[in-house]
Task: structure prediction
Amino acid sequence: MESVRCTRASANAILAILNEAIVNSTALYDYRPRTAEMMEAWFDAKERGHYPVIGAESEDGALMGFASYGPFRAWPAYKYSVEHSVYVESSFRGRGVGTFLMRTLVTAAMEQDYHVMIGGIDAANTPSVRLHKSLGFSHCATIRQVGFKFGRWLDLEFYQLLLPTPRRPSDG
Result:
């Protein structure tokens, strides 16, 4: 497995992974699959914010999954916090791809001097919760019945990881 910086050339593979999760799971609280235009806007936002999109490729070049982060909240005092996401293509789940991607993403966050990584995870998504706990993330909040999908109420849990960066945080 190899780590790669995903570019717009990866958009179709990323879109397929996201849309499979939208249609078949509560990993995303979307109802409808995303479009190519939505992916363009997503990549635009990642580029503007200097947020990485990290992929894991198989030996034959297939995108096995991807991870990224973006702003946690819009106010300036949150500048050292990011909210991340990680998605693994269904045929590659259970093979360590998520762990590989998250470790790479944590390293990227430290290199960019972030201090807190936050993941919002559906409470029933046991594999994602297990992954985050195995990497040192701790449960910090549950918002009960915040989503509704597949005819049921969904609880959203937040997990955070405190990073040793930045060495010299500042206001402003």
Notes: The mean pLDDT is 96. The beta strands are 2-5, 53-57, 63-71, 81-88, 116-122, 138-149, 152-162. The chain has one domain: 2-162.
